[in-house]
Amino acid sequence: MANMNAAGGARSGSSAGSVQQGLKEALIETLSAILSPVQEVRAAAEEQIKVLEVTEEFGVHLAELTVDPQGALAIRQLASVILKQYVETHWCSQSEKFRPPETTDQAKAAIRELLPSGLRESISKVRSSVAYAVSAIAHWDWPEAWPQLFTLLMEMLVSGDVNAVHGAMRVLTEFTREVTDTQMPLVAPVILPEMYKIFTMAEVYSIRTRSRAVEIFTTCANLICAIDELEKGTARALIFPVVQQFTEAFVQALQMPDGPSSDSGLKMEVLKAVTALVKNFPKPMVSSMQQILPIVWNTLTEIFFNQTFTYVRTEVNYTEEVFDPVDSDGEVLGFENLVFSIFEFVHTLLENNKFKSTVKKALPELIYYIILYMQITEDQIKVWTANPQQFVEDEDDDTFSYSVRISAQDLLLAVAAEFQNESAAALAAAATRHLQEAEQAKNSGNEHWWKIHEACMLALGSVKTIITENLKNGRIQFDMHGFLAGVILADLNLAAASPFLLGRALWAASRFTAAMSPELIQQFLQATVSGLHGSQPPSVRISAVRAIWGYCDQLKLSESTHVLQPFLPSILEGLIQLAAQFSSEVLTLVMETLCIVCTVDPAFTTNAENKICPLTIAIFLKYNNDPVVASLAQDIFKELAQIEGCQGPMQMRLIPTLVSIMQAPPDKIPSGLCATSIDILTTVVRNTKPPLSEMLVCQAFPVVAQCTLRTDDNAIMQNGGECLRAYVSVALEQIGQWRDEQGNSGLWYVMQVVNQLLDPRTSEFTAAFVGRLVSTLISRAGTELGDQLDQILRAILSKMQQAETLSVMQSLIMVFAHLVHSQLEPLLEFLCSLPGPTGKPALEFVMTEWMSRQHLFYGQYEGKVSTVALCKLLQHGLNTDDKRLQDIVVKGEELYNPEEGIRTRSKSAKNPERWTNIPLLVKIFKLIINELSTVVEANASRANAADWSQDSCGMWEDQEEEEGQEDDDEDEGLAGQLLSDLIASNKYDEDYYEDDEEDDPDALKDPIYQIDLQAYLTDFLTQFAQQPCYSMFSDHLNNTERQTLQSIGL
Asked: Which of 61, 65, 152, 1004 has its CA 20 to 30 A from that of 824?
C-alpha cells in the first residue's frame, strides 16, 4: 500500500515537473515570437505573455532564462527586461504598480537564489537588467526576507571581478534611490564605509566605479537630509560620523590632475557630493569648510583656468578634437557637465549666509570666466542658422533649454542679484579685460575674436540696471561711451561680421538708451530698422525685433518716445513682413513687439490700424489653437480698443468675424476657437469707453448670450458668463434698454445665463466664475433685480449642496459675502425664510460651509471682501443681539489623540475626525484673528523681500552667527501644515498671485480692494477687545491666536 502511494506521488511530481517544463518551453517560444519582425506574430505573442504572466512559476522561468549562460543573447536580454517589469507589478501587493496575482513565497525564494549570479554576467545589458530586478526586490524584501543580500554584494565588491563590481554597484545605485526611511538606518552604516573604501582605493577600482560610489554617497546624503526633517537626529546618527573623512577625500580628488585615476566625470560627481553636503548640512560643514573652501575654490579656478581654454578651443571654436570619458551606461561625461556642477556649487554657496563671502571675494575671477562660458559655440551657430525658431527659443529670458551659455548667464544674474555693487565693478573690469584680449586676438588673425565681443555685450546687457546705477553713482570705472560707440557701433559697421554679433549688438544698444546722446540713439535706431530688412539673415532680423521692444520699453520710461516716431512706419513694415514669413516662436516675439509698438504714438497707431488690425485678425484665425498667439492677439486688440481713433474701424473689422465664429455650428470650426473669440470680445468691451457702440450692444451682445445658452462646452459657458459680466459692468443701462424681437431685455438674457451656469444638471465647474457675475450684477443692478435676486440665491444654495471643489465653493460663497456688505438685513431674513439641506434655516448651512473654508480662500480681493464681511457679521451679531446668528453652532478645532501618532489612512478610517463645537460668532472671531496673522506674515515677507533686494553687502553674515541655534527650532513649524494651508496662507502675498485676478477691473474699482487689511483688522480687534462680552470670546482662543493678539498689543 505504502509503495503504491509513493509511486503515485512520484507520478504526480513528474507530471507537475513536465507541466512546468511545458510552460517554460511555451515561454521561450513566446519570447522568440515577440522578437519576430512580423507584426501579427508579435501581437499574438504579447497577448500570450499576458496569459503566462499569471502562472506561478513565470518569474522563476524568466530568472532562469536570464542567468542561463548557454541561452541565446536576445532571449536573455528580453527575459531580463520582462523580469524587471514582473517584479514591479507582482512582487508585493503594496506596490503602486501592483497587479494580482502576488508572487508566491516559494517562487520568490527561487528567484532570489537565482538572480545574484546574473550580476557577474559579462554582457552589460543583461547585468544591468538583473541589477534593476535585484534592487526592486530588495526594496520590499531586505533585510527581513533577504538578509544575506548585502553580504553577497560586499563580497562582489572585493572579488576583483570587474563585472561583479559593476553589477553590485548598479544594485546599490538603484537601491539607494528608493531606500525607505525604515531601511536607511540599516543601509547607511553598511554602505557608506564601503563606498568610502571604493572611492579612495584608486589603484584597485576604475574611475567609473569610484564615480558610482560618490553618486551613491550623494543619494544617501540627500535622502538622509529629507528623513531628518521629519525624524530629527537621523543625520547626526547616519551621516555626520562619515562627513569629515569623505570631505577630505573629496578635496584630494579635486586636486588630482586628470589621468589614469581621475577625469572630469569623477570630479563632477565629487562636486555634486560637496554641493549636497553644503546644501543639506551647512552647520556641520562650517568647521570643515574653513579648510575646504579655499582648496575647492583654487581647484575650481584651476579647472576653470586650464579647462576653460580647452572648452573654448574644443566646444566654442572647434579648433581641437575632444575626447570625453563615457560612463558604464554609455553616457558621455563631457566637460560641460563638470561646468554645470561647478556653477551649481557656486549657486549653493550663494544660498547660504555662511559661505556667501567666499564667492564675494572671488567675484573678479569668477565673472571673468563666466563671460568665457557665455560665448556662442560652433554647434549653436549651426543649429540657429538652420532653425531661427530654435534661436528664439534658446535665447529667450524664460527659455526651457539648457546649455553652458544659459547656465553661465543664470550664475551671472544670481551673483549680480546677491552682490550688486561688487558684481558691477567686477563685470566692468572683466569686460574691459576681455575686450582688450579680443582686440589682440583679432589683430593676430583669430577668426573667433567676435565671440568674446558678443559675450561681453550679452553680460553687460543682462545686468544693465546694476551697471547704469553704479556708473551714475560713480562707483565703477567703465567707459560706457567707448563701449557704445567704439565697440557696439563699430561692430555694426564691420564689413563681414557674424550675423550673431550684429544681432547681439543691436540688442545690447537697446539696453543702454539712457546713456546715449540723441545723435547716437538716431544711429542705433537707423541700424535697427535696417536690421529688420528682409535681405538680412533671420538671426539679425530677430535680434532687431528684440531691440525694438527694448527701445519702446526704455524710451516710454524716459518719456522720449518722440525719438522713435520717424522710424515707426519702417518698423511696422518690417514686423508685418516677419509675421508673414514665420510661425511659432518668431511669430510670438513679433507680436509681443507689435503690441508695444502700438502704445508708442496713438496718432501713428490710428493711421496704421488698417494694417495692424487685419494682420492680427488673420494671425488669430490661422493660429487659434496656439494659446500664446491667441493671448498676444488679444493684447493687441486691447491696445487698439483703448485708442479712441482706432475703436470704430477696429470694431467694423473684428466684431463681424467674432459674431460669425460664435454663430457657427460647433462641428464646423476648430475646438476652442469660439471660447477664445468670446474672450477677445470681453477684452474689447472692457477696454472701450462707454457708451458702447450699436455694433457691440445690438449685434455682439445677443449673439454671445445665445451662444452661451445653447452650448454644453464648459469653456464657452465660463467665458460667456465673464463676457456678460463685462457688459453688465461697463454698460448696464444700455443692456437694460436693449430688447430682442420678443421684447426680452438684455438683463433678461443675463439672468438666463446665470440660471444656466447654476443649473444643478451642469458640471460644477461652470459655476467657477458665476459668483463674480452675480456679484457684479447685484452691485450694478441691485434694486432692479427684485424677485429675480431671490431666485438667483436659491439657485446658488442648491448648487452649493452639490459643489465639492474649493474654487467653485469660494465663487458661490463670495456672493453672500458681497451681500453682507450691501444688504445684510435682507440677506439674513431671506436665508432664515428658507430651509437648508438638513431642514434647519439655510443661514446655518451657508455659515457652516463658509466658516469651514474661509482659511482656504485665495486671491487678495476675495480675501478682503470675505474677511471684512466677517467683521461686519460679528459686529452686527453683537450690536443687535441677533439670535439668528447667536444660536448657530459650528465646528471649532479638530481633536487629536496624543497616543495615536501619525494618522495613516487606515487609522483615519477606524477613527473618524473629531471636532469641538463652538458658537458661530466665536468661530468668526477666531477666523478674523487667523486672517490678521496671515496678512501680517505676507506683509512681513514682502517688506523682507524689499530689504533683501536693496541689500547688496554682507550685512546678514554676522547676524546669522548670533542666531546660530535658532534655525533648528524654526524648521519644525512647517512639517505639521497641510500643503493646502501653506498655499492658502499666502492669499495676500502679491508675488504669490502675481497673475491673479487683480487685473479684474471690477475688483480694482471696489473700495474694499483699497483697504489696508492689516490696519483694518488691528483697529477692529482693538475696539472689539473693549466690549464687555470680550472675555467670553477670549476664553476660546488657542495659543497661536493669543500670540497673534499679543503682537498687536492685546
From this structure: 1004
pLDDT tens digit string along 151-166? 999 999 889 899 999 9
| Mean pLDDT of all residues in 638-657 | 96
At 171-208, the pLDDT tens digits run 999 999 988 888 999 999 989 999 999 999 999 999 99
Q: Per the structure block, which three cell numbers stand in for 918? A: 463652538
What is the torsion angle, in degrees rounded to the nearest 10, for the CA atoms of residue 583, residue 584, residue 585 and residue 587? 50
Give the pLDDT confidence of 209-251 residue by residue, as tens digits. Answer: 999 999 999 999 999 999 998 888 999 999 999 999 999 999 8
The backbone torsions φ and ψ at residue 745, rounded to the nearest 5 degrees and listed phi first, read -85, 170
Burial of residue 441 (CB within 10 Å: 0-12, 13-18, 19+) is middle
- Lowest-confidence segment of 1-10, 509-518, 565-574, 896-905 by average pLDDT: 1-10
The 3-state DSSP class for residue 852 equals: helix
CA-CA distance, 905 to 900, in Å (whole number)? Answer: 13
- ω into 1001 cis (within 30 of 0): no
Vertex 157 angle, CA 156 and 163, to 5° = 70
Cell of 754: 446665470
The dihedral built from the CA positions of residue 235, 240, 241 and 247, taken in this order, carries a sign that is positive
**Residue-level pLDDT at 288:** 75
13, 15, 25, 744 from 18: Cα distances, Å: 9, 5, 10, 84
With 50 as the cut, is the pLDDT of residue 7 above it?
A: no
With a CB cutoff of 8 Å and minimum separation 6, the contacts of 22 are none
Q: Residue 489 carries which DSSP code? A: I
At 855-877, the pLDDT tens digits run 999 889 999 999 999 999 999 99
User: What 8-state DSSP symbol labels residue 497?
Assistant: -
CA 864/CA 607 separation, integer angstroms:
44
At 826, the amino acid letter reads P
Which residues, listed in sequence order, are joined to residue 895 by a DSSP beta bridge?
A: 914
Distances (CA, A) of 146 to 84, 89, 108, 168, 790: 18, 19, 10, 15, 70
- Torsion of the alpha carbons at 571, 576, 579 and 582, rounded to the nearest 10: -80
Cell readout for 344 is 551649481
Q: Which set of grid coordinates corresponds to residue 335? A: 566637460
The CA-based angle 952-953-957, given to 5 degrees, is 125
Computed over every residue of the chain, the mean pLDDT equals: 87
pTM (predicted TM-score): 0.79
Q: Is the peptide bond before 147 cis (omega within 30 degrees of 0)?
A: no
Give the dihedral sign, CA 702/703/705/711.
Answer: positive
Is residue 998 pLDDT above 80, yes or no? no
Dihedral angle sign, alpha carbons of residues 308, 312, 318, 319: negative
Q: Are 152 and 141 in contact (CB under 8 A)?
A: no
State how far the Cα of 552 lies from the Cα of 605, in Å rounded to an integer: 14
Residue 115 to residues 55, 393, 1012, Cα–Cα distance (Å):
19, 47, 68
Whether the CB-CB separation of 49 and 73 falls below 8 Å is answered with no
Rounded CA gap, 661 and 666, in Å? 9
pLDDT at 607: 97
The cell 478682503 sits on which residue? 864
Task: Please give the pLDDT value at position 324.
Answer: 57
Number of Cβ within a 10 Å radius of residue 148? 12
251: cell is 578635496
Residue 821 has pLDDT above 60, yes or no: yes
Q: Cα–Cα distance between 469 and 822 in angstroms, integer?
A: 50
**CB proximity list for 1008: less than 8 A, separation 6 or greater:** 821, 861, 864, 865, 868
Rounded Cα distance, 621 and 610, in Å? 17
| Residues linked to residue 915 through DSSP beta bridges, in sequence order | 894
Q: By C-alpha distance, which of 715, 712, 711, 650 is closest to 684?
A: 650
Q: pLDDT by residue (tens digit) across 598-622?
A: 999 999 999 999 999 999 999 999 9
